[in-house]
Design goal:
This protein is of the alpha+beta class. It contains 2 helices and 6 strands. A hairpin with a 3-residue loop joins strand 4 and strand 5. The chain starts with a helix and ends in a 15-residue tail after the last strand. InterPro entries: Dev_reg/Prot_inhib, Thyroglobulin_1, Thyroglobulin_1_sf.
């Protein structure tokens, strides 16, 4: 009986560090610090807890969405207006004139669309592997 209690306590103590928040600066904070020490480079934006801000912007008016690791999400870069980057609000991405961008993405995947916004069958891929190659000459709906 004492052995079981001792083993449970030991397991709890050894596993305790799993519940503690990581010490030191986050990846975003590290990248931000390094960028601020350099000149002429993009400086990432971090939230209070150290996570990357979902919408990143640079001087000159370009903004884009990033994943939790700070990697740019394909098809989200905008000039002059900010993309909507919250997970629950990834609607259709459009040009300034209202026409659909050929590459559309949600939180988990990306796909090509026709001029009227219809998904091109067979083009859906995981967001991490998406490229922006949806030229209209490469597919037909």
């Amino acid at each position: 009986r004492y052995t079981l209690t001792l083993l449970l306590l030991l397991g709890l103590l050894l596993g305790l560090d799993w519940f503690l928040p990581p010490s030191g600066p986050s990846a975003c904070e590290e990248e931000r610090r390094a960028a601020m020490e350099a000149s002429g480079v993009y400086v990432p934006s971090c939230e209070d807890g150290g996570a990357f801000t979902p919408t990143q912007c640079q001087q000159g008016g370009q903004c884009w969405c990033v994943d939790p690791t700070g990697r740019e999400l394909p098809g989200t870069r905008r000039h002059g207006d900010s993309p909507v980057c919250s997970e629950g609000n990834m609607g259709s991405q459009c040009h300034h004139d209202g026409s659909f961008l050929p590459l559309q993405c949600d939180v988990t995947s990306c796909w090509c669309v026709s001029e009227d916004g219809q998904e091109v069958v067979g083009t859906r891929v995981p967001r991490q592997t998406a490229s922006s190659n949806c030229s209209t000459s490469s597919f037909r709906v």
